[in-house]
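Good morning C.,

I know you're traveling, so I'll keep this short. The sequence:
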Amino acid sequence: MTVVDTPAPPRTARATRLTHRVFVVRELGILVALVLLIGVTAITNPRFLSHQSVKDLLLGATILAILATGQAIVVITRNVDLSVGSVLGLSAFLTGTLLLHHPGLPIPVVLVAGAALGAVCGAVNGALIAAARVPALVVTLGTLYVFRGIDYRWATGKQINAADLPVAFLRMGTRTILGVPLLTLFALVVVLAAGFCLRSYRSGRELYAIGSDPAAARLSGIAVGRRVFFAFVTCGALAGLAGTLYVARFGTLDANAGLGQELNVVAAVVVGGVAIFGGSGSVYGAALGAMLLTTIGSALPVLGVTPFWQKAAVGALILAAIGLDRALSVRVTKSLQRGVHQ
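The tokens, ready to paste straight into the viewer:
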């Protein structure tokens, strides 16, 4: 992706358009698969598309979509954040504790507090990765356990119940606007804002350049360390926001909130077409991947598929997405080479 402001040569512009078309087609493929799955399930059981079922499906995808958006930003830079589930749990317990002791706190303040704690956790990850240049897989695997340990120590076996939380906050988890859950609208705003920033701002486009070739990006004058740091801060902040919305969605929580969620998040990002090797993909695809995985989890039991094959289907999707990503990358590379030699 172009990261300078000078006009691209004709051949480069054609190659850029080709790359864009390839990845748009991939995201459309995810959407088609989602529609087909919903259609087949609805034919088998028409109640699958009842108002309540659709609402539950959207609510189920909301938290995962927000987490996948932050993860996609990190993966685009050729990194990964395995600590998002623990950050969600830590933020969720902070939110529950704040509301338990200060029930009169305005909801925007609670949302900001949750996102701020997540941003601090993301800053810890980003500092270790960008400044110390420690591999992201190693750092975030360590902080996954560190943040979860802090959560367990803080919770000390306690559980926060929905009956102890303010009704106004819990109502946010069930409220709908024109039939669409409010929490889903939160996720939609997050995805659209992140997609706009990645596409329209130079700092966002530079993330793709870093993921494509970190060494070349550094030589071209891009502040790689700073960009990677803020990518992790953004991912942490969104995980913190997801933790706050998790409390509104479920009400009752303990130190196990978000446990194991990081694997679902990475799966949603990969299935959504974000290249695990960085440099390509979009947050829109990641959100579609989250929706597809949530729908699979709801639709396959309706179709009579056993839990074993449900997990196998998700694994097959991940492998297919990685294979397709590799095939598309080879195709784009060959097209770029042909453009250069013409």
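Safe travels,
E.
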